[in-house]
Design goal:
The structure holds 2 protein chains of 2 kinds. Chain A is mainly α. Chain A has 16 helices and 2 strands. Chain A is elongated and about 105 Å long. In chain B, strands 6-7-8-3-9-10 form a 6-stranded mixed beta sheet, sandwiched between helices. The chains are: A mainly alpha, B alpha/beta.
């Protein structure tokens, strides 16, 4: 009996024009966006390699470039937006990456407007979720409206089995559509020599697929629930579209606005004041040292070694303290972002975004790891600089190691997103339970 | 020959909706094998509610419905094994062909091993055009859909058939064909309970006719009794009579 219902549901969806139109749009979007994103990744990768080659032996300025993430071809996240070039000296640690190397200094001219944000995650978050709503809005309501529900229930068919069958049949179609989209994306990636996926990337892709399926199931169970509660299909669709706009567009933005008002960030002026206050204990000494340094330079004399060393120590101290203030600001910004995410936790789209960005390493977490690596690299540079005054022979031999930072391991990414998995699962469970109870009590006349 | 036990039986059946409307009021009726019972009445008289109560779509306020002596409230799934249902406006699944619809409902009715030819035979029996067998139902006329609806009832081969205004909206030819099929089913021993507005067709096919007014069965006549009485006059007289006191 259950198998009969599942088979009928699947056939119903497969024969419907809404499914064919939805799947066609998905396939077209996935194909175009993956090709464009791979092309973009290739150019950014080339820019990165070119920039690495051009790095000179300048011991004063150290330039660092952030390599593009291979999974940004599926989930762009903030990979492009946050910029990926940075230059630091012992006098200054930039608080953020400057600009975007690809857009501003790339040798490649390209037109990306309009397509930059369309990727696999976008297709799942927006297109497929909308398709799921269009598929399931009338799962029950239309059957009631047309009287087929009465015909079905006039048989030896328990209501719970009917709902389970409808759920399972739709689920196979929804997850099937997702798998088709993913396979298409991956095939395009695999046939491109610029893309190389390691084991870790494959596991991340599988996790991304899993969470995408769960996200779509959320919308499917929600649609099923609305379809049970609302008897007229047109009204059910209207209600679902409004919920969809609320969850995907309005609510997440509302979360950001609320977080901005609840958690106020210091102004530029306040940050400058904090930096000045942090360095205040050293300011007087620094002034004297600078004067002695300038006098020596103006007289054309060698700067006394103790003045030179102290000048460097205080300058780097200033840079470090400024960095601490910047770091504090960055932490506050992260807190504000987390508050916005907490407020928006009821939006499956926000939850999905967090997880997808984390798995693709294109979110804020990866960026913060990169910036922490920058500070450690700066400290190493400073240690090397200090060596000049302590052991000049060692300093001459010393070389600043290549910049590297530790990306989040796949296992850690999974553990860090467990809560989001649970939230999406709970959403699905609650909507299904509501649909279940609603259907058992439904007046089918 | 002793009369067989009724397949469909309502005992002191009442239904009061949440809004206070008493749709069925202490109804007692039974339908025996090989008998067609027509429930006549105006809109809101309680005919459809009675059918819904037999199918356990709504619970009764008091009383009991039995299908083959099974209390439909206590064991609805078992009771539904023995009943088929044809609704007023059989919509079915528009994207499916006639045969696919038949196949789906046959499986729900427990007929798992039927062949394509079996389905074709049933559709031929109800005079559905051959070319329509593999056509999508969404393009069917109402008459064709009603024929398919009765094929669903036939293929289930249940001893009881409930019909809710099955001839409403059908042209005279289609309605006559429909009644012909019902007659055949009656001859096969099916117990048929049909709610209808159509007095003439009720008189033509029914072995017994019951008139419902404000939820009560106010009159019941057999085919023999109706040979000497004018059903139209009786019906109109009952409809014109003062409202019943509750």
């Amino acid at each position: 009996m259950l198998g009969t219902i599942i088979k009928r549901e699947m056939l119903e969806y497969l024969k419907s024009s809404k499914f064919l139109i939805g799947l066609s749009i998905t396939v077209i979007l996935i194909t175009i966006s993956t090709i464009i994103n791979i092309q973009d990744f290739k150019l950014r990768q080339q820019d990165y390699l070119d920039a690495q080659k051009e790095l000179g032996g300048d011991t004063f300025r150290v330039s660092i470039f952030r390599s593009p993430q291979v999974l940004s071809t599926l989930v762009q996240g903030k990979d492009r937006k946050l910029g990926n070039s940075l230059t630091m000296t012992y006098l200054n640690i930039p608080s953020r990456t400057a600009g975007y190397m690809g857009e501003y200094t790339s040798k490649h001219h390209r037109y990306m407007a309009g397509f930059a944000a369309v990727d696999f995650a976008f297709v799942v978050r927006v297109v497929l979720s909308l398709m799921v709503i269009f598929l399931a809005y009338n799962a029950i309501s239309e059957e009631k409206f047309h009287g087929t529900l009465k015909l079905v229930l006039a048989n030896r068919m328990p209501r719970d089995q009917l709902l389970l069958g409808k759920f399972a049949g739709g689920l196979i179609i929804v997850v099937g559509s997702l798998i088709i989209s993913a396979i298409l994306s991956l095939l395009i990636m695999l046939f491109n020599p610029a893309i190389s996926l390691g084991n870790s990337e494959w596991i991340r892709i599988l996790m991304l697929l899993g969470v995408s399926a769960l996200y779509l199931i959320c919308f499917y169970t929600l649609s099923l629930f609305v379809s049970v509660v609302v008897s007229r299909p047109a009204i059910a669709l209207l209600v679902l579209l409004q919920i969809w706009i609320l969850l995907i567009v309005i609510y997440p933005n509302l979360g950001v606005i609320m977080a901005e008002n609840i958690y106020r960030l210091p102004s530029e002026q306040e940050i400058a004041q904090s930096k000045a206050a942090a360095f205040q204990p050293y300011q007087e000494e620094f002034k004297k040292i600078r004067e002695a340094f300038i006098v020596a330079v103006e007289r054309g004399e060698w700067v006394p070694e103790d003045v030179d060393l102290r000048n460097m120590e205080l300058s780097s101290k200033k840079a470090e303290l400024n960095h601490q203030v910047d770091k504090e600001f960055s932490n506050q910004l992260t807190q504000q972002m987390k508050l916005a995410q907490t407020i928006s936790i009821l939006s499956p789209a926000v939850v999905y975004d967090q997880v997808a960005n984390r798995y693709a390493r294109t979110g804020m977490n990866e960026y913060e790891r990169f910036m922490n690596g920058i500070f450690r690299h700066w400290q190493k540079g400073l240690e090397m600089k200090e060596l000049r005054y302590k052991d000049i022979q060692a300093w001459r031999k010393a070389e600043l190691p290549e910049f590297s930072y530790q990306s989040e391991t796949t296992a850690n990414s999974f553990v860090a997103t467990l809560l989001q998995w649970v939230i999406l699962f709970l959403f699905s469970l609650i909507f299904f339970a509501l649909a279940y109870v609603g259907f058992l009590r439904k007046d089918v006349r | 020959m002793a009369k067989q036990e009724p397949i469909l039986k309502a005992e002191d059946l009442s239904k009061r909706y949440e809004d206070g409307v008493l749709a069925v009021d202490h109804l007692n009726l039974d339908v025996h094998p090989g008998e067609v019972y027509c429930l006549l009445g105006a809109n809101g008289a309680g005919k459809t509610t009675t059918v819904n109560l037999f199918l356990n779509f709504i619970p009764p306020t008091t009383g009991t419905c039995f299908i083959k002596e099974i209390d439909v409230t206590k064991d609805p799934l078992e009771a539904k094994k023995y009943v088929s249902f044809v609704s007023e406006n059989v919509m079915l699944y528009g994207n499916f062909t006639a045969r696919q619809n038949l196949d789906f409902f046959a499986k729900l009715g427990g007929k798992l091993e039927l062949s394509k030819e079996d389905y074709h035979q049933v559709m031929r029996r109800v005079s559905l055009q051959e070319r329509a067998f593999e056509q999508r139902v969404k393009n069917f006329s109402k008459g064709m859909r009603q024929k398919l609806g009765i094929s669903i009832a036939i293929i289930k081969d249940a001893p009881a058939i409930l019909l809710d205004e099955p001839t409403a909206g059908l042209d005279p030819k289609a309605a006559a064909e429909f009644l012909e099929i019902l007659n055949e089913l009656k001859d096969e021993g099916k117990a048929i309970l049909m709610s209808t507005h159509d007095i003439f067709r009720a008189k033509e096919i029914a072995d017994r006719v019951g008139i419902m007014k404000e939820g009560r069965l106010v009159m019941e006549r057999t085919r023999e009794e109706l040979q000497y009485e004018d059903l139209v006059k009786i019906y109109i007289d009952y409809m014109r009579a003062e409202p019943l006191t509750v």
